C-alpha cells in the first residue's frame, strides 16, 4: 500500500474524528446537556482514531499487533457509544453505527492492501534472490578449452577442485540434433544441463577464450515450480482483495441509500408525531373533542408507519445476513387476503378480492401475509383504486395477482424494480422478492390492460 493511500486513509479517519468531536461539542451546548453517552456523535471520535491507527505504517509484527489491537478496542468502544445513544437518538444512532461499519470495512481493506503489498515485495525479493543464486555452473576456458576459472557449482557437479587444471575433451559443443548439453564429470559420466557458449575475442577478433554457462535442468524445474506456486499465491491474494473491495463498494452504496432513506422517510413521521404531540400538549384544554381525536389519529397513523419502516429495516438486515428461513405449510389465500383488506387504511370498495376459498398455497403464513401487505400498500401508494386481488390454480402452482388502476411503472424503472430503495422507502418490493424466493416461488411485473400495474407472485400449490 503506497504512502498516498495511507495518507488518504489517515486523513479520512482524522476528518471523521474531528467531525465527531465538533458535532459532540455543538450538541452539548444545551442547558442541561443530555450527557456524553446520549449523543451518537461521540462514537465517531474513537472510530476515526481507529482508522488513523490502521493507516499508520508499522515496522514489526509486535507493533502491528499492538496497533491493530488498540484500533479494535476503539472500534468496540465506538459501537458501545452508538448503542448507548440509541434510546434518545434512534435514527442518528443507526446512521452512526452504519458509518462505523463502513470504517471497519475500510480498515479491513487497508490491512488487505498492506498484506498484499508485503506479499508482492516478498515475491519480488524471492525472485531476485532466486535468479541471483540460480545454481549455474560457469567455466572460462582458453582457446584450447583448458579450464582457467570455475565456480563452486561447476566443481560440485563435476567433482573438480578449485585449482585443478582441467581440459574439456571433447570440447563443449551443442548436442547433435538438439537436446540437452552434457556437463563432463571427473568419473567420466555426464550431467544433462541447459547451457550456452559465448566466445571472448582477442584484439583481432579471433576467439581467445570461451565462457560456458550450465544450468542444471532439475534446479531450473524446481525454480520454475516454486515461482509458479508463488505467483498462484499472489493471484489468490489479489482475488481476495478484489472481493473485499467489491463488498466495500456495496456497503458504501447501501450506507448512502440507507442514510438517504432515514433522512427523508423516517424523519418525516417523527417530525409529524412531534409537532402533533406538541400541539395537543399545548392546547389540550382549548381543542374540541373531534380535533383531539383527529390529531391523535394522525399521531397513531404516523406511529404505525414508523413502526412498519423499522420492522422492514429489521427484516432487511435479516435477509442480508441470510437468517430468514421459511416454515412452509398450506396457506388459504382467500383468508389471508381478507385479513389484509380488513387491516388496510383504504376505504370501502378500494380493494376487491376475487378468488375461491379453495386456493391454497404452500408457504410460510407470516411471509405470505407480509408479501400481500407490501403489494397492496405499494398498489395503493403508487397506483389508483380499485385494487384487485385475485388468485388461481395453474397445475401444481398457484398464481397470486395484485393489480391497480394507475398508470403503471415506467419502463426505465423495471430493471431495478425489486432492488433496495426503489421508490419511496424502497423496501417493500425488495422484501417481497426475497420472501417469495425463500418460499420457493417467484415474482414478476406485468403491464395491466388497458392500464395499471400487475404484480404476479407464483407459489407452489399446497397438496390436496
Automatic annotation (TrEMBL):
Write down the membrane topology.
Multi-pass membrane protein
Q: Which Pfam families match?
A: HATPase_c, HisKA, PAS_8
User: SUPFAM superfamilies under this entry?
Assistant: ATPase domain of HSP90 chaperone/DNA topoisomerase II/histidine kinase (SSF55874), Homodimeric domain of signal transducing histidine kinase (SSF47384), PYP-like sensor domain (PAS domain) (SSF55785)
Q: What GO MF terms are annotated?
A: kinase activity
Per the record, the coiled-coil ranges are: 220-251
Please state every residue range assigned to the domain named Histidine kinase.
261-463
Q: Which reaction does it catalyse?
A: ATP + protein L-histidine = ADP + protein N-phospho-L-histidine
Coarse class of the primary localization is membrane
| Keywords, comma-separated and alphabetical | ATP-binding, Coiled coil, Kinase, Membrane, Nucleotide-binding, Phosphoprotein, Transferase, Transmembrane, Transmembrane helix, Two-component regulatory system
Q: Recorded E.C. number(s)? A: 2.7.13.3
Residues in PAC domain copies: 177-229
Q: Which residues cross the membrane?
A: 40-59, 66-86, 92-114
Domain of life, per lineage: Bacteria
Q: Where found, per UniProt?
A: Cell membrane; Membrane
Give the protein's recorded name: Sensor-like histidine kinase SenX3
Instruction: Please tell me the species this chain comes from.
Output: Paractinoplanes ovalisporus
